[in-house]
Every structure is written in C-alpha cells, then in structure tokens.
Design a protein that fits this description.
- By secondary structure, the chain is mostly helical.
- The chain has one helix and no strands.
- The chain is rod-shaped, with a radius of gyration of 59 Å.
- The chain starts with 5 loop residues before the first helix and ends with a helix.
- The model has no long low-confidence stretch (mean pLDDT 91).
Length: 142
C-alpha cells in the first residue's frame, strides 16, 4: 500500500521552492534580461532597416523625378534649338532671296544701261552708215 511520509513531503516542497527561488534569482532573471536586451537590439535594427529602406526609396523617387525633369528640360532645349535653327534657316533663306532679287535688279539695271548705250551707239552708227551709204549712192549715180 501507498503511504505518504509527511516530513519527506514537507522537505520536498521546501526543496522545490528553494530550487525555484534560486533558479529564478540566478538563471531566469538574467536570461530573461538578456533575451529582452537582445529583442530590443533586434527591434532597433529592424526599425533602422525600415528607416534606411524608406530613405532609399525616397532617394529613388527623388532621382526618378529629377531624371524626368531633366528629360523634360532636355526636350524643351532641343525643341528651342530646333525652333531657333528653323528661324535662322528661314532668316538665311529670306536674306539669300533678298540678295538674289537685288542682284537680279542690279543685273537688269546694268542690262538696261548697256541696251541704252548700245541703242545710242547703234543710232549714232546708223546715222553715219546712212550718210556713207547716201554718199556712195550719190557717187555711184554720178
């Protein structure tokens, strides 16, 4: 049969609580604090990682915006340069046409002057030629 020894039971209970107190005091407390400190470091590292990732994403977004702004500015500069080039081309073409018209007018004026001189010379020479022909005709009739 089963018998319970009260003194052993009391000593077992006392030993159990004494062992519990010693373990709690020298093992569970420091290990718990060590685990809490380690968890705090891990949490701080995770927070720092999230902040760093947010900063990296913010930098990527900012760089993408700057890149887009640079592309737009480059497109505007190219469009302005093309417009300026077209304007210069049109101005050059207008100036060339104007010079050509001036040269044509000057050429016509020179041609008209030459024609006038040639007509005057022809009129003068035809008068002389008429006088010579008349003189020959008169000489031959005589």
């Amino acid at each position: 049969m089963l018998s319970i020894n009260i003194s052993e039971l009391i000593w077992t209970i006392i030993n159990f609580f004494l062992l519990y107190f010693v373990l709690k005091r020298f093992l569970f407390g420091p290990v718990g604090r060590l685990l809490d400190e380690r968890q705090a470091k891990i949490d701080a590292g995770m927070t720092a990682q999230r902040e760093a990732q947010a900063a990296v994403q913010a930098n990527r977004d900012r760089l993408a915006e700057e890149k887009e702004a640079s592309r737009e500015e480059a497109a505007h500069l190219i469009a302005a340069a093309e417009s300026e080039g077209e304007q210069l081309r049109a101005d050059s073409l207008r100036e060339a046409k104007s010079r050509a018209k001036d040269a044509l007018r000057e050429g016509k004026a020179q041609l008209d002057a030459t024609n006038t001189q040639e007509e005057a010379l022809l009129a003068e020479k035809s008068g002389e030629l008429t006088a010579l022909l008349t003189a020959r005709i008169l000489d031959s009739e005589e």
